[in-house]
């Protein structure tokens, strides 16, 4: 194998690299050691994924487990990639690439490659690329052990602060098929995944296919986007992915994927989003934590194929719950962080700056459902929310799926509804102040703001349109939220139920025949059971 650093010290470097298929304009990794050049295209990657899926699954070979286990949280935290070895550090293109190290929590190696002029060369791992203590167990890893993941670094100034690319990154891929971006407010939060297999399926463990090979397309000098290809493999399927990513107001990702199934899958989530919701203003938990709210996302927003706009506040349920919102050719959906008030979090980890993530289908997706899985949690360290598109057609062995979509990592949804938006959901004891509070009655306060609510004629009061899967409503009325701007209204009502099974509810506001707000959906768990 040719040692690239040796080549670059001689006048023969350019000619030797050109002979391997790399022109002088495509010299992408000046200090990294590279393997042999092999022909590459997205079509060949798709063909490779299809070929893999036709064979029994073989797990990627890992470095010795006894070494990886010693690279625990503390040891891993002392390992830093040396930015002088960053891919594309001196161009071409605007964004250098740095790499994550393997360790106890990231044991599956990812083979990284750089692509230029239709040829790919593997980036050979060496511990010289990382700054680590002399006694770090990482020194014991064999040559070309592989990397855990990667990130694109900043190399230009942001709107809010001056960013040093050596310290700031804007997109990261790490662990299985997880990836995330900083969004519009320069803060990481929720994640996306390449695929979700059997999330919350009774009697079946969830499967986590992984990106095993990643390919970085050498960008043009004036490029405003980066292109990354990935090969995914797991016991039930294999797939090929193309990511075209750009940073502007937020981060946009155009994703194309081809999936091939080895086995039947009970719940195949094609566009999974993963977030954390512990608690919000909805339910007050006594002494659960000192902060008023803790969540990366506070609701699921839906824009259906029929044009309805829906807001579903998230729950931290008493048991794992899967909800399905059937649709045909949806226009989009996302997990959003609508509450941007820092006083509602009072924390230095900036929950108020966490990105909202919106999925926009490209083309027609047909029939299926946006499924929401909510898992109980008692801490903020656990991602307990999954939202994903699940096709109506059963996911059978031998089947294939081609899908394209765009991800928007922003502060708000990219296509805001012209209707009033739901801003808060508050629960309390039912009944009236000063009167005995009846058992089995819960009071709801649902706030809406903006849109046609701001233009209501003086004296016109919105009407609450309510529905519940069971139970009965009482004391229903609407009122303007006191001491706030015009166009901020709330609906108040009591719900009486007699058992602890979940209750599905719908609510929107109207004036005459005019719909004023998006539709509020909520799943209520009586008595916390």
TrEMBL record:
It is found in: Periplasm. It comes from the Bacteria. Residues 40-524 form the Glucan biosynthesis periplasmic MdoG C-terminal domain. Residues 1-28 form the signal peptide. Pathway: Glycan metabolism; osmoregulated periplasmic glucan (OPG) biosynthesis. Keywords: Periplasm, Signal. It comes from Chelatococcus albus. Its main location: periplasm. Belongs to the OpgD/OpgG family. InterPro entries: Gal_mutarotase_sf_dom, GH-type_carb-bd, Glucan_biosyn_MdoG/MdoD, Glucan_biosyn_MdoG_C, Ig-like_fold, Ig_E-set, TAT_signal. Pfam families: MdoG. This is Glucan biosynthesis protein D.
């Amino acid at each position: 194998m040719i040692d690239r650093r040796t080549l670059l010290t001689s006048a023969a470097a350019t000619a030797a690299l050109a002979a391997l298929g790399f022109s002088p304009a495509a010299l992408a990794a000046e200090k990294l050691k590279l393997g042999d050049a092999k022909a590459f295209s997205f079509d060949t990657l798709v063909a490779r994924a299809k070929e893999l899926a036709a064979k029994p699954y073989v797990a990627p070979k890992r470095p010795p487990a006894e070494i990886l286990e010693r690279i625990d949280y503390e040891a891993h935290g002392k390992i830093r990639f040396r930015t002088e070895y960053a891919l594309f550090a001196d161009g071409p293109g605007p964004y250098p690439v740095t790499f994550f190290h393997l360790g106890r929590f990231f044991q599956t190696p990812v083979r990284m490659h750089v692509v230029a002029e239709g040829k790919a060369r593997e980036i050979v791992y060496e511990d010289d690329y990382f700054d680590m203590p002399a006694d770090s167990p990482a020194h014991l890893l064999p040559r070309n052990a592989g990397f855990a993941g990667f990130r694109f670094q900043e190399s230009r100034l942001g709107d809010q602060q001056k960013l040093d690319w050596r310290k700031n990154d804007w997109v990261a891929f790490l662990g299985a098929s997880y990836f995330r971006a900083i969004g519009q407010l320069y803060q990481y939060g929720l994640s996306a995944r390449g695929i979700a297999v059997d999330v919350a399926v009774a009697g079946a463990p969830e499967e986590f296919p992984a990106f095993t090979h990643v390919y970085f397309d050498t960008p043009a000098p004036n490029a405003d986007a980066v292109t990354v290809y990935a090969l995914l493999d797991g016991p039930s399927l294999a797939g090929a992915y193309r990511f075209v990513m750009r940073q502007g107001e937020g981060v946009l990702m155009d994703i194309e994927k081809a999936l091939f199934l080895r086995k039947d899958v009970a719940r195949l989530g094609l566009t999974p989003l993963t977030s954390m919701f512990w608690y919000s203003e909805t339910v007050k938990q006594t002494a659960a934590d000192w902060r008023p709210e803790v969540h990366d996302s506070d609701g699921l927003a839906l824009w259906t194929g029929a044009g309805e706009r829906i807001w579903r506040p998230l729950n931290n349920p008493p048991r794992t719950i899967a909800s399905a919102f059937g649709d045909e050719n949806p226009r989009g959906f996302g997990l959003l962080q609508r509450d941007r008030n820092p006083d509602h979090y009072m924390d230095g980890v900036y929950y108020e700056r966490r990105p909202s993530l919106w999925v926009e289908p490209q083309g027609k997706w047909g029939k299926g459902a946006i499924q929401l899985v909510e898992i109980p949690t008692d801490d903020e360290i656990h991602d307990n929310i999954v939202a994903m598109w699940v096709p109506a057609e059963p996911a059978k062995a031998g089947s294939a799926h081609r899908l394209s979509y765009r991800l928007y990592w922003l502060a708000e949804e990219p296509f805001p509804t012209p209707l009033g938006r739901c801003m808060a959901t508050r629960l309390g004891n039912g009944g009236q102040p000063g009167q005995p509070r009846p058992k089995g009655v819960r009071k709801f306060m649902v706030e809406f703001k903006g849109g046609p609510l701001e233009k209501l004629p003086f004296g016109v009061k919105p009407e609450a349109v309510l529905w519940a899967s069971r139970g009965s409503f009482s004391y229903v009325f609407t009122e303007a939220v006191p001491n706030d701007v015009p166009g901020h209204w709330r609906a108040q009502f009591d719900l009486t139920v007699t058992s602890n099974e979940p209750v599905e509810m719908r609510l929107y506001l109207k004036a005459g025949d005019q719909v004023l707000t998006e539709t509020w959906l909520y799943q209520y768990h009586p008595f916390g059971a």
